[in-house]
């Protein structure tokens, strides 16, 4: 592992560079193919509405994958992430237009642990609502 | 209908090995729009100390979720999968998944709860490589929503 951020240089409260991730229907079709998750709630509006959703929603695992990029881009080596967990609290609703949805992710160091590890807490918001809860990563720094 | 508590602690047989392909990692990284060179460029991965390209942290879910099919499709358990949503997901890594890995998953039912008519199922998937070394553990919480009142 070769994280580019030094443990000694971060403090509780250190903010990681925030990022925004656009999601369109095309993004979801592509993610479905790459991940093997072909649940129609992620691409078929009629089906999504029938099961009580407002529209097609993003794969929770897509949101989880996007959010951790704030941490892996910061740490440099993705293998610096030794633990990562989320709760899927609200769906990311993806309308069938050019814009789609936007997932805005921010993160900060919440605790300094032993063995040069830190806990990073993430916040992911789409359309003004938190879409992930209890979103935490443990990261080994240099 | 509440699920049978006696299934808590049940462990299913390890899955047949899944071979992690370099191009599958690339496809996944591109699908999540992640341009980190460690996922696609062997030299970049080596510069970070990895023997080959590594997979993004959540890549392994495709493997563990497929393995959890043994549990959710177990006719004796009787989960109504059409009403299942993904509640929580967590991973703990011993090392990153990398190209060439042959990974096998052992799934265990950690907990079964019933809350407000919803069935909540916690599944732990232990992912090991061909030599039996631990790679990552995935915890998946599935919630089977109660049927709407008629």
UniProtKB/TrEMBL annotation, chain B:
Transmembrane segments: none annotated. Pfam families: FAS1_DH_region. SUPFAM superfamilies: Thioesterase/thiol ester dehydrase-isomerase. Residues 6-137 form the FAS1-like dehydratase domain. InterPro entries: FAS1-like_DH_region, HadA-like, HotDog_dom_sf, UPF0336/Enoyl-CoA_hydratase. It comes from the Bacteria. Belongs to the UPF0336 family. This is UPF0336 protein ACF05T_11805. The lineage of its organism: Bacteria, Bacillati, Actinomycetota, Actinomycetes, Kitasatosporales.
């Amino acid at each position: 592992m070769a994280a580019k951020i030094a443990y000694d240089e971060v403090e509780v409260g250190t903010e990681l560079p925030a990022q925004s991730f656009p999601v369109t229907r095309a993004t979801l079709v592509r993610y479905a193919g790459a991940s093997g998750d072909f649940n129609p709630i992620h691409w078929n509006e009629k089906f999504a509405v029938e099961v009580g959703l407002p529209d097609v929603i993003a794969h929770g695992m897509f949101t989880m994958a996007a959010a951790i990029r704030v941490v892996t881009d910061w740490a440099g080596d993705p293998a610096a992430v030794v633990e990562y967990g989320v709760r899927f609290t609200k769906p990311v609703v993806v309308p069938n237009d050019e814009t789609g949805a936007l997932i805005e992710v921010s993160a900060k160091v919440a605790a300094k642990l032993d063995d040069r590890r830190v806990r990073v807490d993430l916040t992911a918001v789409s359309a003004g609502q938190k879409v992930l809860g209890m979103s935490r990563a443990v990261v080994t720094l240099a | 209908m509440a699920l049978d508590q006696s299934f808590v602690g049940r462990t299913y047989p390890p899955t047949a090995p899944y071979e992690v392909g370099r191009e599958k990692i690339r496809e996944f990284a591109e699908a999540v729009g992640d341009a980190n060179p460690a996922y696609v460029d062997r030299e970049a991965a080596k510069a970070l100390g990895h023997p080959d390209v590594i997979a993004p942290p959540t890549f392994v879910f495709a493997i563990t979720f497929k393995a959890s099919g043994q549990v959710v499709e177990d006719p004796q358990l009787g989960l109504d999968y059409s009403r299942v949503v993904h509640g929580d997901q967590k991973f703990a890594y011993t090392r990153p998944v990398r190209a060439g890995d042959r990974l096998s998953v052992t799934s265990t039912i950690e907990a079964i709860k019933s809350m407000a008519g919803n069935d909540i199922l916690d599944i732990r998937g232990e992912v090991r490589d061909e030599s039996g070394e631990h790679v990552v553990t995935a915890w998946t919480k599935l919630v089977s929503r109660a049927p709407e009142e008629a």
